[in-house]
Write a structure and sequence with these properties.
alpha/beta, 5-stranded mixed barrel, AMN_phosphorylase, AMP nucleosidase activity, 18 strands, 33% helix, EC 3.2.2.4
Length: 488
């Protein structure tokens, strides 16, 4: 089959108005997806392969500058480092409308040059196109009466990768990347998010909390209902698994017949600056999976608020641990981010977390040290590390000066660093295995239960502090390299 049928391919257009540029992206994207959906439904109805191959393309943003003139160096994004041509393919411009307007607007403003919007040369897989049509799905290979990939483009893992993020991307034809993610990479993650969290990506908010303990979900729902009851809170709805959305504090949430791998809940604000809570469960693999996909939504911050093992005898169950460094023994990111890469603490996040602890506990200054330690958090990939020969693990923990151990925090922080998403960690000590206090039934003290109840509120309060911070201050330059993409 050599004949290829495509939708109309309009000429490229230049824009100095970011809203107009994004409107054009939406128009081109809709034309491509409508074409593929219509042709797919027609082929499935006919039960036979059409006479032509069907192909549509992602829209593209392209930008060219010819000067080395410096722009405002205080910004970590919104500009390119060197003269040249840069481009990125775009998907779901309706979902990313505000983000695209912001990023394109900064590029135009900082360089005084227009952007060019056109149809790219990257084919759109039919699987991702039909995702825009509720109730329409692509059957598995062999289920249709014709070979799907003979007629439509399908996802291509050779072009769906993290080369740009990992700094290993080699530009083609001298055109550099404008964004950390290509359209296919974003589409892949959007599909994975819906699968793993049982909520639509459009519900995700700009501030994401990760936890490894179901108790926090109950606390989060209680907090959300209190906020919905307060007409001045700014929060307008709460979304549970299965995309069940309530706007009234008294509404009943139906039970989910089947819980997803990573149950996710969203306390929403109209501007998207609400809070999302993801229960990632236990282990660095889940932590990597969640952050790999949530990163394409470009959140403004993510924090880990979970349980950990305290490593100092001076710690008590229920004490808090504020991570300022990480010992990475989780291993899931070693191929993407070598362990020799430092994961710095971000001052804006650290200050917000410490202030939130002080406000929720009523302690400050030296008194705060009674219930919170700041130091290195170690993340391990073996939940039952205590059952192995202790000489190796304990020596590593001692040499690193670690004060707490878990399985997720270093992964979430490292992926935050890799994806340029501001990150932080505040943990609650649930056991002290080196000192005879194992995580066993009945060992939780009243102090521990009280602190756990406060823990989630501390994470929420820290996020609300970060929400009031200008983006140019929150998105630290420590997360950006010397040869960085313009888009955040």
């Amino acid at each position: 089959m050599t004949d290829i049928k495509t939708p109309d391919l309009p000429e490229a257009q230049s824009f100095t108005d970011p809203k107009a540029a994004v409107a054009r992206l939406i128009e081109l994207y809709d034309a491509a997806t409508n074409f593929l959906c219509d042709e797919f439904m027609s082929a499935m109805s006919a039960g036979a392969a059409p006479g032509s191959r069907m192909r549509a393309f992602y829209p593209e943003v392209r930008f060219t500058t010819t000067t080395y003139a410096q722009v405002d160096s205080r910004l970590s994004f919104g500009h390119v480092a060197d003269p040249g041509t840069y481009s990125t393919t775009v998907t779901r411009p309706d979902l990313f409308e505000h983000y695209l307007e912001q990023q394109i607007g900064l590029l135009i403003k900082n360089h005084g040059q227009p952007v060019v919007v056109s149809v790219s040369e990257t084919p759109m897989p039919v699987h991702f196109a039909v995702a825009s049509r509720p109730g329409l799905t692509v059957p598995q290979e062999g289920a249709a009466r014709f070979t799907l990939r003979d007629v439509f483009d399908v996802p291509d893992l050779a072009t769906t990768n993290d080369d740009i993020v990992n700094g290993t991307h080699v530009p083609e034809n001298g055109v550099g990347p404008l964004s950390l993610f290509t359209a296919q990479r974003v589409d892949y993650s959007l599909a994975r998010l819906a699968h793993y969290t049982a909520t639509d990506p459009g519900h995700f908010q700009n501030h994401v909390l990760f936890t490894n303990y179901q108790f926090y979900v109950t606390e989060f729902e209680a907090y959300a209902r209190a906020q919905l009851a307060d007409t001045d809170s700014g929060y307008t709805s709460f979304v549970s698994t299965g995309n069940v959305e309530i706007t009234d504090a008294e509404e009943v949430l139906p039970g989910s017949p089947k819980m997803p791998q990573m149950p996710t809940y969203h306390l929403k604000r109209p501007d998207g600056n609400g809070i999302t809570l993801v229960n990632i469960g236990v282990g660095p693999s889940n932590a990597k999976t969640a952050t790999d996909h949530i990163a394409v939504l470009r959140p403004h911050a993510w924090l880990m608020v979970g349980h950990c093992a305290g490593l100092r005898n001076s710690q008590a169950l229920g004490d808090f641990v504020l991570a300022h460094a990480y010992l990475r023994e989780d291993h899931v990111l070693d191929d993407d981010l070598p362990v020799w890469v430092p994961i710095p603490a971000l001052a804006e996040i650290q200050v917000a977390l410490e202030e939130a602890v002080a406000q929720e506990t009523g302690l400050e200054g030296y008194d705060l040290k009674r219930i919170m330690r700041t130091g290195t958090v170690a993340s391990h990939d073996n939940r039952n590390w205590e059952l192995r020969d202790q000489s190796g693990p304990v020596q590593h923990l001692s040499q690193s000066r670690a004060i707490a151990l878990d399985m997720e925090s270093a992964t979430i922080a490292a992926n935050g660093y890799r994806f340029r998403v501001p990150y932080g960690t505040l943990l609650c000590v649930s056991d002290k295995p080196l000192h005879g206090e194992l995580k066993l039934p009945g060992m939780a003290s009243d102090f521990y239960r009280t602190q756990v109840s406060k823990h989630l509120l501390i994470g929420i309060k820290a996020m609300e502090m970060l929400r009031s911070m200008p983006l140019e201050r929150l998105h630290s330059r420590k997360l950006r390299s010397f040869d960085e993409t313009a888009f955040l």
